[in-house]
């Protein structure tokens, strides 16, 4: 007997996706991309373990919407990488999944054509292509893991993962993080609460069993061993920054109380710069000064940066899109990014 109107009453259709294995076959991990990912992850672990004194810098667009401009950005970052490599590990921010406060464009995977056609199948393939291209340039990548299935498609191309302010408290995201192959940065909540990030680190360090898919796309019980490289990302909240030395000391105390290592990353954007992208260099400079004055817990920073500064609304006529400019949060432009990173490098050469 069929039972119409009892389930999926608000679902309009199901469209089949290629499996992760099929996508991996179409776009296999090359030897050079493999080397970039493995070296990037190892360097990040070494920084977190204090075997490497450098600061890791997750820097790049708020979101990728145009792969041509994205690769143009990646080439610039790659060229800068060699000059600052003594003091900083540059990891490109390659964000494809945007958590929205209410509604809005949810990113390149969800709607790659930016026209509400929602070709997630094409978006996933384009995202994998883009990540491969960046890794083949020799730049490790960082992304926000929002959809718990996406890592099966893309996880082999990622060196660092963020769990966003809106999902750090979510059990699904903590479970997923317990199985991720990268270090994971948990943002404090949008209200500034860091306890949810600390609880996320504790939770994700443990083994979990949960529902997911395997490489063949079969619904599976995923059993994980736990992720030892969870850490807090301070992004400010409730309209207030939390990168100042007092906020850092409070975060360190909270980690100590939870018997967790003191590892902190400062997101220079979002509430830490009052969502004014041009203030990010001030935040970065403050963080670098704290390190120069002996701070030992700051291991990384995040910067939202693009070729052109600011942001733009997605126009109805996509040919009107401004090249290299964010369609989500505002960013600093390339010149400001380069100046800021070179200044931080010069300062960090003097660290104790
Ligand atoms: O960094 C990204 C945004 O701050 C986040 O996705 C929320 O965006 P929204 O408030 O514009 O939806
Ligand atoms: C969504 C983001 O940040 P947050 O989760 O801190 O709002 C982001 O970095 O793109």
TrEMBL record:
Residues 46-341 form the DAHP synthetase I/KDSA domain. It comes from the Bacteria. The keyword Amino-acid biosynthesis applies. GO terms for molecular function: 3-deoxy-7-phosphoheptulonate synthase activity. Its EC number is 2.5.1.54. It catalyses: D-erythrose 4-phosphate + phosphoenolpyruvate + H2O = 7-phospho-2-dehydro-3-deoxy-D-arabino-heptonate + phosphate. Gene3D superfamilies: Aldolase class I. InterPro entries: Aldolase_TIM, DAHP1/KDSA, DAHP_synth_1. Keywords: Amino-acid biosynthesis, Aromatic amino acid biosynthesis, Transferase. Pfam families: DAHP_synth_1. Pathway: Metabolic intermediate biosynthesis; chorismate biosynthesis; chorismate from D-erythrose 4-phosphate and phosphoenolpyruvate: step 1/7. Belongs to the class-I DAHP synthase family. Stereospecific condensation of phosphoenolpyruvate (PEP) and D-erythrose-4-phosphate (E4P) giving rise to 3-deoxy-D-arabino-heptulosonate-7-phosphate (DAHP). This is Phospho-2-dehydro-3-deoxyheptonate aldolase. It comes from Massilia frigida.
């Amino acid at each position: 007997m069929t039972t119409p109107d009892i389930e999926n009453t608000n679902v309009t259709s199901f469209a089949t996706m290629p499996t992760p294995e099929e996508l991996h076959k179409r776009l296999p991990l090359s030897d050079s991309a493999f080397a970039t990912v493995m070296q990037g992850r190892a360097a990040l672990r070494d920084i977190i373990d204090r075997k490497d004194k450098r600061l890791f810098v997750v820097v790049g667009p708020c979101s990728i919407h145009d792969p041509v401009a994205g690769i143009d950005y990646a080439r610039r970052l790659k060229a800068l990488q060699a000059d600052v490599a003594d003091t900083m590990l540059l990891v490109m921010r390659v964000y494809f999944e945007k958590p929205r406060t209410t509604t809005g464009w949810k990113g390149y995977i969800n709607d790659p054509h930016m026209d509400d056609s929602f070709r997630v199948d094409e978006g996933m393939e384009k995202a994998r292509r883009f990540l491969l291209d960046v890794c083949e340039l020799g730049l490790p990548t960082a992304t926000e893991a929002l959809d718990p299935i996406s890592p099966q498609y893309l996880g082999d191309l990622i060196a660092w993962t963020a769990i966003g302010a809106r999902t750090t408290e979510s059990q699904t995201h903590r479970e997923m993080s317990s199985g991720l192959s990268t270090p994971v940065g948990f943002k404090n909540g949008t209200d500034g609460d860091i306890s949810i990030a600390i609880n996320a680190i504790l939770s994700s360090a443990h083994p979990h069993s949960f529902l997911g898919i395997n490489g063949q796309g079969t619904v599976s019980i995923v059993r994980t061993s736990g992720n030892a490289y969870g850490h807090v990302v301070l992004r400010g909240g409730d309209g207030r920054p939390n990168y100042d030395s007092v906020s850092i000391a409070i975060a360190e105390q909270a980690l100590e109380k939870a018997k967790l290592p003191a590892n902190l990353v400062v997101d220079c954007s979002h509430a830490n710069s009052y969502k004014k992208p041009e203030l990010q260099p001030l935040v970065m400079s403050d963080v670098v000064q704290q390190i120069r004055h002996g701070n030992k817990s700051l291991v990384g920073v995040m910067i939202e940066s693009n070729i052109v500064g600011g942001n733009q609304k997605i126009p109805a006529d996509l040919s009107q899109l401004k090249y290299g400019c964010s369609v989500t949060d505002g960013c600093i432009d390339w010149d400001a990014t380069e100046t800021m990173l070179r200044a931080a490098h010069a300062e960090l050469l003097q660290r104790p």
